[in-house]
UniProtKB/TrEMBL annotation:
Lineage per the UniProt record: Eukaryota, Metazoa, Chordata, Craniata, Vertebrata
Organism expressing this protein natively: Eleginops maclovinus
Keywords, sorted A to Z: ATP-binding, Kinase, Nucleotide-binding, Serine/threonine-protein kinase, Transferase
Designated name of the protein: non-specific serine/threonine protein kinase
Broad EC category: transferase
Keyword ATP-binding on entry: yes
Documented EC number(s): 2.7.11.1
Basic and acidic residues: compositionally biased ranges: 1-11
């Protein structure tokens, strides 16, 4: 199904439009919790995200999709490349097993992911199109990110150069500005939660879901502590400024290949984070050092703003961000 050369799946030729997967002219809206719970227990198998009250909801079931190759495995199920039969459009279909989620008591996190992500529309945020469920599984219909996880790409490359990292910094800052304006804080920015689009552009994924479900991969290495800001370690209330800390850690990890406060033990990592014990390898440019040091400030109020990240001289000199074309008559 996948053409490795250009990252385009074979056989899926028609451009995908988000609205075609939704029920009406409006963006999908999530059903109230009680209604979702009811459907989860009755397991009708044909439920989905509702739409504007003026339009009948478009109902999906697994029969509406051709299932392709697995894209990856998550804690609660698998993700598949899929084609919406009626539209000849590709999506990523995330299949989550209710029993596993119930066992871990994380249903509320799934709700959070749906509620938050369904309302965000930005070129650097993975689109959430719809959901439906049957008796045993919940299916999330998501934008397909052809170049996969940034984490794997970083493992493959070892580290990224200034151009690539600065481009990611501009993309993620712009996406987070959009989120923060809507009072959404991601709180779990790290390469595992970032996917890459067709042109390699960054896509923030896993809204609200990974917040309290740290990836096992990092837990086995050194936990997810590497991206934790001091205020979260100390148990203080935190604001959107936690995301500024995280993109500082991300910038460092992209350029160096490992996160700045990594140690062999949790307690040592905690200590290094609390002291902001930041050390740069020799090859890191002055501009990148300046950006990282002004994001990794212990006091949230002292961190560089997202707008100033985008305008930072090192980002401006190195970013190669290209925005997707907006066709006449369409809304971005
Ligand atoms: P998750 O359950 O979200 O952790 O996803 C498991 C794996 O599936 C990820 O590590 C990705 O490699 C892959 N994956 C998840 N969502 C997508 C997507 N929308 N497009 C492409 N690959 C994805």
């Amino acid at each position: 199904m996948q053409n490795k050369e250009n990252h385009e799946p074979r056989g899926f030729t028609r451009p995908f439009t988000a609205t075609s997967l939704m029920a009406g002219p409006q963006r999908a809206q999530v059903k109230p919790r009680a209604e979702m719970d009811h459907n989860a227990t009755t397991g009708s198998g044909r439920e989905c995200v509702g739409a504007s009250s003026s339009a009948a909801p478009k109902k999906f079931s697994i029969n509406d999709f051709d299932i392709g190759r697995p894209l990856g495995k998550g804690k609660f199920g698998n993700v598949y490349l899929a084609k919406v039969k009626a539209l000849d459009s590709i999506v990523a279909l995330k299949v989550l097993f209710k029993s596993q989620m119930e066992k871990e008591g994380v249903e509320h996190q799934l709700r959070r992911e749906i509620e938050i992500q369904a309302h965000l529309k930005h070129p650097n945020i993975l689109r959430f199109y719809n959901y439906f469920h049957d008796q045993t599984r919940v299916f999330l219909v998501l934008e397909y990110a052809p170049r996969g996880e940034m984490y794997k790409e970083l493992q493959r490359c070892g580290r990224f150069d200034d151009q690539r990292t600065a481009t990611y910094m501009e993309e993620i800052s712009d996406a987070l500005l959009y989120c923060h304006e809507r009072k959404v804080i991601h709180r779990d920015i790290k390469p595992e939660n970032l996917l890459l689009g067709y042109r390699g552009e960054l896509k923030i994924a896993d809204f609200g879901w990974s917040v309290h479900a740290p990836s096992l991969r990092r837990r086995t290495m050194c936990g997810t502590l590497d991206y934790l800001p001091p205020e979260m370690i100390e148990g203080h209330t935190h604001s959107e400024k936690v995301d500024l800390w995280c993109i500082g850690v991300l910038c460092y990890e992209c350029l160096v290949g490992n996160p700045p406060f990594e140690t062999a033990s949790h307690s040592e990592t905690y200590k290094r984070i609390m002291k902001v014990d930041l050390k740069f390898p020799k090859n890191i440019s002055d501009g990148a050092r300046d950006l990282i040091s002004t994001l990794l400030r212990h006091s949230p109020a002292d961190r560089l703003s997202l707008k100033n990240v985008i305008d930072h001289p090192w980002v401006r000199a190195n970013s190669r961000r290209v925005l997707p074309p907006v066709f006449p008559g369409t809304k971005s």
